[in-house]
Amino acid sequence: MWRRRTAILTTTLLCALGVLGGVATAAESNGGTRILPLGDSITDGFNVPGGYRINLWRALAGAGHLTDFVGNQVNGPADLPDHDHEGHSGWRIDQIDAIVAGVLRDTGPRTVLVHLGTNDIVQNYDLPNAPARLSALIDHIRAAAPNADVFVSSVVPLSDPVLEARAGAYNATLPDIVRGKGSRVHFVDMHAALSTADLADGVHPNRVGYDKMAARWASALAAVPGSAGNDGAPVTVPTGPRSLRVTTPGFTDRYARHQNALGYTEHVDSGSSALLKSDATWRIVPGLAGGCYSLESRNFPGYYLRHQNSRVKISTDDGTALTRADATWCARSAPTGVRFSAWNFPGSYLRHINSELWLATPGGSGPQDAAANLVPDLGWSVDAPWVP
């Protein structure tokens, strides 16, 4: 979540099929790339609370992206790390258009995912002008968020032959509409990704259908660099003796250190003990796994910073492939310095949390994966060593 306003409550459902269920939770934010899922009950996740957003989050996290779903609605299962969206059950294009400027102002998205038009089709609402309404909606999104990438999808198949014929006519107009909107608007053929076998009730996808939607969205985002964020570009860091300083605001006087073989952060200054200064100094050397970098303890030569069962510690190089992979880190750019990604777990990073060092995975289930402060806690500054 970027900025929240009071969630809009709606009981109008697509096709009037009943009361929508789901887990209502407080909104979350991990500070990542803001993505706005925008649409009707299929975006909300009718039949499967969370809908495509469940597997889309997992796919983006698995690719190393730090993602923040945004919107004024909250829906989804407990194991979905971010429940925010802007899906309104039963709403047509014109109804979404009436609120979109305010939504964009409140959420400031980098990327917008639009799946909309099903209710115009089901309600047989002025269908000849539905493409024009969608075109106007895209224009309004572009005006309110000119730097956002907008992904506009065709609507999913419908089981009823009459409704499917209407959907086909509507979908056929979308590629040309999108082509006329500039390089930051992209067409996604969602209709081709599903079949009627992927529907739970003839209109809304079942879990398999939502997962197929997630895969299609993820593929579309992957084709547009930056639309889902990234885990930073590879960077070169200085080798030799160095100290790793925390860059999280309010904690920039703390450094990565080892103590009793485990990794921690601790305040270090010129008056600190010689032992602490030495514990907070590392030799950055070529990666033991054959690439990137490894961090060797300054006062325990032959011991390297590694992850094991997500905890970060120091251990000797026993020559095994596993140890060497666990002790190899790839430096990538971050908003506040450098991010260290695990060699053998791309998309997982060296993080400090509660003064401890952990391997954190965005969207993961461990306490170290918690979204609060995740992005700033992944950043490090490679500083001059406390002990040369």
Quick structural overview:
The protein has 388 residues and is of the alpha/beta class. The chain has helices spanning 41-44, 52-62, 93-107, 118-122, 130-144, 161-179, 207-222, 274-279, 321-326, 374-377; strands spanning 33-39, 67-69, 73-74, 84-87, 111-115, 149-153, 185-188, 240-246, 254-259, 262-267, 282-286, 293-297, 303-308, 311-316, 329-334, 337-342, 349-353, 356-360, 380-383.
SS-based structural class? alpha/beta
Query: Mind telling me the C-alpha Rg?
Result: 24 Å
CATH superfamily of the largest domain: SGNH hydrolase
Beginning-to-end CA distance, first to last residue? 44 Å
What is the overall number of helices?
10
Instruction: Say how many strands there are.
Output: 19
Helix percentage: 25-40%
CATH topology of the largest domain: Rossmann fold
Number of domains: 2
Instruction: Write the H/E string, N to C.
Output: EHHEEEHEHHEHEHEEEHEEEEHEEEEHE
Instruction: Report the mean per-residue pLDDT as an integer.
Output: 90
The shape is elongated
Query: Which residues form runs of ≥5 with pLDDT under 50?
Result: 1-26
Taken as a percent bin, the fraction of beta residues is: 25-35%
Major sheet: 7 strands, mixed
The CATH class of the largest domain, by name, is: Alpha Beta
Overall description:
There is one protein chain. The chain has helices spanning 41-44, 52-62, 93-107, 118-122, 130-144, 161-179, 207-222, 274-279, 321-326, 374-377; strands at 33-39, 67-69, 73-74, 84-87, 111-115, 149-153, 185-188, 240-246, 254-259, 262-267, 282-286, 293-297, 303-308, 311-316, 329-334, 337-342, 349-353, 356-360, 380-383. The protein contains ten helices and 19 strands. By secondary structure, the protein is of the alpha/beta class. The protein is elongated, with a radius of gyration of 24 Å. Mean pLDDT is 90; it is low at 1-26. It folds into two domains: 14-222, SGNH hydrolase (Rossmann fold); 240-383, Trefoil (Acidic Fibroblast Growth Factor, subunit A) (Trefoil), CATH 2.80.10. The strands form six sheets. Strands 1, 2, 3, 4, 5, 6 and 7 form a seven-stranded mixed sheet that branches. A four-stranded antiparallel sheet has the order 12-11-8-19, with no helix packed on it.
